[in-house]
Write a structure and sequence with these properties.
single chain, 853 residues, alpha+beta, 26 helices
C-alpha cells in the first residue's frame, strides 16, 4: 500500500504546482535570490583574489626560471653571461634594486631605483613617453616620480651617492629620458628605471640580486639535462626556481595581504546565507499555512504525517535545486560583466578565467539543502494538523510563535549577548596598550552580536506591536487605509517579525558599516593632522633654533601659505622627560580632524595645557584636572584644558600658550616652521618647494622635508579604506536585496491569503486605490520596523567595535547617511509591494465574498 499512497501524495503536489504556480514561484524566487547572493559573494571573492594577484604579482608571465644567489653574494655580469650561453635559454635579465637621495633642494627627496630591460617579454614596465635609457647617465622614471618631482623627458636629476671610501657623498647628474608605467604598485613611491648594467654603474655595484630567465619551448630537446640543472652547474650555489612557482608564491603573498578583505567577504557570505534561510523559511511557512485544506484532505484519505512531511520536503528540495542552478548561472553572468563595467569607470578588475565549478556545485546543493531546512519545520507542523481542525481553520500563517519557550530562549540569548558585551566594555584597551588582542576581542563582539540577533528573532513577535504603536502614530491619522495597514501588520506579529527581522539584519550591518567607516575616517583625519600637519616641515640643522626672520621671509612668498612658527622644549613629568610646545593647534592642517577626547581645544588659555592621550592616561587626568611639570628645575602647575584622543602633532606631549612657554624660560627663537603650498596639486607643491629652497640660503636657516608626500600616501590608504568599505556595503546590499524579496514574497502571498478580507473591504465601500495604498503602506511598515530594530541593535555594537578596533578613534554617527539608508529602505520595501497591492486593489467584492479558499 505504500507505493499507491506515495504516488497519491506526490501526485497531489504536482497537481498543486500546475494549478497554483504563483505560490511556488514565490518560494522559488526567494531561493533563487539566496543562490544568487551566495554565489555572487563567491564571485566577489574570486574577483578580489584575481585582481589582487594580477595587480601585485611582480614576475612577468614570460619568466620561465628565477635564479637567486644562494650564498648571499650577488650574481655578477660574468655569471649572467654564462646563464645566457646555457642551451635552452632564450633571454636573461638581471634585477637590481636600490635608491638615492636627490640633490638640489633643502627639502629631502628620495628616488628608488630598479633595474629593468624596458622592452621585451621580461620587462616589468612599459614606456609611455620619451625613450627608454640605452646609454650611461640616463634614467626613466615612473609616473609617481614625474608627478611629485615635476619631471619630463629631458629633465635632469642629481643623485647623491656615497663615496667608495664611505666618507662623504658625490653628486651624479642623470638625464630623464622617458616616463614609464609598471604594475599597480608603480605609484607607491617615486622610482627610476634603467637596464641592469647602467643602473649598476649609477649605484656603484657590479652584481644582481636576481636573474629572470626565459627558455625556449623545446629547451630540453637537445639533451637530457634541463636548463635549470645546467644553470645550477654554471652558477654554483645558486637557487633556481620555476617562474610558475615564484608567481604562485607572489600570488599567495598578495592574497595574504588582502586576507582581511577576503575574510570579511566570507563573514558576509555567512550573513547572506542566514538572511536567505530566514526569508525562505518564512515563505514556506506562509505557503504551507495557506495549503492546510489540501494537506488535511490528504490526511483524511490516509496519508501518514511521515509520508506527507517527506513529500513536502521533496517538493522543497526540487524547487531549491532548480532555483539554485538558475541563481548560480545568473551570478556567474553578472560576475563576468563586472570587470568591463568597472573598466568604464576607470577601475581595473579581473574576473576568474573559468567557472568555479566546485563552489557552483556546492551552492546548488546548498540551496537544495537550504530549501529542505527551510521547509522542514513548517512541513512537520503542516503534516501534524488534525483533518477536522484544518478544515475549520482559516490558515493565517500565525501560530503560537510568541510562546513562553520562545520568549525564554530570546531572553537567554539577550542575557548572553549583554554579558559578553559588558565583558568587552570592561576590558577596552587604554592608550599605549600594545598587548591588547583586538582580533580575539572583535571575535567576542561578533559572537555577542550574533546572540543579540538571535534574541531579536526569538522576541520579534513580542516587539512588533510596541514598536509599531510608537512609529505608526502619524499613519493612524491619515485615514482608513493607514489605520487598516497598521492593523494588518499588527494583527500578524509573527509574520511581520519574520520579514522585519531580515530587513533589520541588513540595516544593522549597513548602518554599522557606515558608522564604523565614519569613525575610522574621523580617526584618519586626526592621524593625518598629527603625522602630516603641513606640506613643509622646517627644522634646525646645526643648532637648536631657527633664524627668527625665516617665518617672515617664507610668508612673503606667494607660493606659500599658512606659515607657522613654534617652539618645542623639554619638560619633566613624574621623573620622565616629555616635550612641551606652543604650537597653535588651530593652525594644524585639517583642523576639523584634530579633536579632543575630553574638554575643548578652544579652551587653551594662559595657565592651561592640552595633554596627549598617552600622558593623560599615565597621569590619570582629564579636562579640568591639574598637572605639575618641571621646566628648568622649577615646577609649573597647569590646568588641563583638553586631552587628545591620540598623539600630538610633531611629537608634542603638552601644548601651552606662547606666553606661558616664554614665562617658563624658553628661548624666543622658533625651533620649527611649517608651511603649505598656496596652490593645490603636484605643480603647486613643486613651485612651493622651490620657494622654500630659495629662502633657505644658508645652513643656519634650517633643513626640512616634504610632508605632502606622506599625506598623499595616507590619502591612498584612505582610498583603500573607502574601497574596502564600498565593497563591503555592496555585499551587504545583497542581504538587503534578500530582505526586499522577502517583503515582496510575503506581500504576494498575503494578497492571495486575504482575498476575502480585501473583498469585504471593497464591499464596505473602500476604493481600489485605498486598498492599494493599504497594502503598500503595510510593506513600507516592514521597512520601518526593520530599520528601527536594525539601528537600535547596530549602534551600540558599532560603538563597541570602534573602541575595540581603535581606541583613539572618535565615535562618529553619520546621521545623514543613516537617514538616507532608512528612507531608501522604506521606499524600496514600499515599492516591493506595488505589484501585490495592484492585484489586491483589483479584487472584485463579489468574487472575494464568494471565495472559499
Amino acid at each position: 500500500m505504500s507505493t499507491p499512497w506515495r504516488a497519491t501524495v506526490l501526485g497531489s503536489q504536482v497537481a498543486e504546482l500546475l494549478r497554483r504556480p504563483g505560490r511556488f514561484t514565490a518560494t522559488g524566487l526567494s531561493l533563487l535570490i539566496a543562490a544568487f547572493v551566495v554565489f555572487g559573494t563567491v564571485m566577489a571573492q574570486q574577483i578580489i583574489t584575481a585582481t589582487v594577484v594580477e595587480k601585485f604579482r611582480g614576475t612577468p608571465e614570460a619568466v620561465s626560471l628565477v635564479v637567486t644567489p644562494g650564498d648571499g653574494e650577488d650574481i655578477g655580469e660574468d655569471r649572467l653571461g654564462e646563464i645566457l650561453k646555457t642551451p635552452g635559454v632564450t633571454e636573461a635579465v638581471g634585477r637590481l634594486d636600490g635608491g638615492s637621495p636627490l640633490d638640489g633642494s633643502a627639502v629631502e627627496r628620495y628616488l628608488a631605483l630598479s633595474a629593468d630591460p624596458g622592452t621585451g617579454a621580461l620587462a616589468e614596465v612599459r614606456l609611455t613617453d620619451g625613450t627608454y635609457p640605452s646609454g650611461p647617465g640616463r634614467l626613466a622614471v615612473n609616473t609617481r616620480a614625474a608627478r611629485e618631482y615635476g619631471l619630463a623627458p629631458g629633465s635632469s636629476l642629481t643623485l647623491l651617492r656615497p663615496e667608495p671610501d664611505g666618507e662623504g657623498t658625490r653628486r651624479v647628474t642623470v638625464e630623464v629620458s622617458g616616463i614609464v608605467r609598471g604594475t599597480a604598485t608603480d605609484d607607491t613611491e617615486p622610482t627610476g628605471y634603467a637596464p641592469g648594467p647602467r643602473l649598476g654603474e649609477l649605484l656603484g655595484v657590479s652584481g644582481y640580486s636576481r636573474i629572470d630567465v626565459r627558455t625556449g619551448t623545446a629547451s630540453s630537446a637537445s639533451g637530457s639535462v634541463d636548463p635549470a640543472e645546467r644553470i645550477r652547474q654554471a652558477v654554483p650555489g645558486a637557487q633556481v626556481r620555476s617562474g610558475d612557482e615564484v608567481r604562485e608564491e607572489e600570488a599567495r603573498e598578495a592574497v595574504a595581504e588582502a586576507k582581511d578583505t577576503l575574510e570579511l567577504v566570507t563573514v558576509f557570505l555567512a550573513v547572506a546565507v542566514g538572511a536567505a534561510v530566514l526569508v525562505a523559511t518564512s515563505t514556506f511557512r506562509i505557503v504551507f499555512a495557506r495549503r492546510v485544506r489540501q494537506l488535511a484532505l490528504l490526511r483524511a484519505i490516509g496519508a501518514t504525517p511521515r509520508r506527507l512531511a517527506a513529500a513536502l520536503v521533496a517538493e522543497g528540495a526540487v524547487v531549491g535545486l532548480l532555483a539554485g542552478a538558475t541563481g548560480v548561472l545568473a551570478a556567474w553572468g553578472c560576475g563576468r560583466l563586472v570587470p568591463p563595467v568597472a573598466g568604464w569607470f576607470g577601475h581595473d578588475l579581473f574576473a576568474p578565467s573559468h567557472l568555479p565549478l566546485t563552489e557552483a556545485v556546492l551552492t546548488v546543493l546548498g540551496t537544495g539543502l537550504l530549501a529542505v531546512l527551510a521547509v522542514l519545520a513548517p512541513s512537520l507542523t503542516a503534516s501534524r494538523v488534525s483533518p477536522l481542525q484544518a478544515l475549520r481553520s482559516a490558515a493565517s500563517g500565525e501560530n503560537a510563535a510568541s510562546g513562553v519557550g520562545r520568549t525564554l530562549l530570546g531572553l537567554l540569548c539577550a542575557a548572553g549577548a549583554a554579558f559578553l558585551a559588558r565583558q568587552q566594555y570592561g576590558g577596552l584597551p587604554q592608550p599605549g596598550d600594545t598587548e591588547y588582542d583586538r582580533f580575539a576581542a572583535l571575535t567576542v563582539v561578533v559572537l555577542s552580536g550574533g546572540l543579540a540577533f538571535l534574541a531579536l528573532i526569538a522576541l520579534g513577535p513580542r516587539l512588533v506591536r510596541p514598536v509599531l504603536s510608537a512609529v505608526a502614530v502619524p499613519l493612524r491619522r491619515t485615514g482608513a487605509a493607514g489605520r487598516l495597514a497598521v492593523a494588518g501588520v499588527g494583527g500578524a506579529p509573527g509574520r511581520a517579525a519574520s520579514v522585519s527581522v531580515v530587513v533589520a539584519l541588513g540595516v544593522c550591518l549597513v548602518g554599522s558599516t557606515l558608522t564604523c567607516l565614519a569613525s575610522l575616517n574621523a580617526y584618519e583625519r586626526y592621524r593625518q593632522a598629527v603625522e602630516a600637519p603641513a606640506d613643509f616641515h622646517l627644522y634646525a640643522r646645526d643648532s637648536e633654533t631657527l633664524d627668527r626672520s625665516l617665518a617672515a621671509d617664507l610668508t612673503s612668498r606667494p607660493e606659500l601659505a599658512d606659515v607657522t612658527a613654534f617652539r618645542t622644549a623639554e619638560v619633566v613629568e613624574s621623573a620622565r622627560s616629555a616635550t612641551i610646545s606652543d604650537l597653535d593647534l588651530g593652525t594644524v592642517r585639517s583642523g576639523v580632524g584634530l579633536t579632543a577626547r575630553t574638554g575643548s581645544l578652544d579652551r587653551l588659555e594662559p595657565a592651561h595645557v592640552v595633554v596627549d592621550a598617552d600622558h593623560a592616561h599615565r597621569l590619570g587626568v582629564r579636562a579640568g584636572d591639574r598637572v605639575t611639570l618641571t621646566f628648568g628645575g622649577r615646577p609649573v602647575r597647569l590646568t588641563v584644558a583638553a586631552t587628545l584622543p591620540g598623539a600630538g602633532p610633531y611629537g608634542g606631549n603638552f601644548f601651552v600658550t606662547a606666553a606661558d612657554l616664554t614665562r617658563m624660560g624658553a628661548d624666543a627663537a622658533p625651533t620649527t616652521v611649517t608651511a603649505n603650498a598656496s596652490q593645490g596639486g603636484a605643480q603647486g607643491r613643486i613651485r612651493a618647494q622651490r620657494a622654500v629652497t630659495d629662502t633657505l640660503t644658508g645652513p643656519e636657516r634650517g633643513d626640512g622635508r616634504v610632508i605632502a608626500e606622506d599625506s598623499a600616501a595616507q590619502a591612498g590608504e584612505s582610498d583603500d579604506l573607502r574601497t574596502m568599505a564600498t565593497t563591503v556595503i555592496m555585499v551587504l546590499g545583497l542581504t538587503v536585496l534578500v530582505a526586499v524579496v522577502g517583503v515582496a514574497t510575503t506581500a504576494s502571498l498575503t494578497v492571495v491569503e486575504r482575498k476575502r478580507e480585501f473583498g469585504l473591504l471593497r464591499a464596505l465601500g473602500l476604493s481600489g486605490a485605498a486598498v492599494h495604498r493599504m497594502v503598500t503602506v503595510e510593506c513600507a511598515l516592514y521597512g520601518v520596523l526593520g530599520g528601527v530594530l536594525g539601528l537600535a541593535l547596530g549602534m551600540p555594537y558599532s560603538w563597541l567595535v570602534v573602541r575595540v578596533a581603535q581606541t583613539s578613534a572618535p565615535f562618529s554617527v553619520p546621521a545623514g547617511e543613516l537617514a538616507a539608508v532608512f528612507v531608501a529602505l522604506v521606499l524600496v520595501t514600499a515599492a516591493a509591494g506595488m505589484v501585490p497591492a495592484l492585484r489586491a486593489s483589483r479584487t472584485s467584492p463579489t468574487v472575494a465574498v464568494a471565495q472559499t479558499e
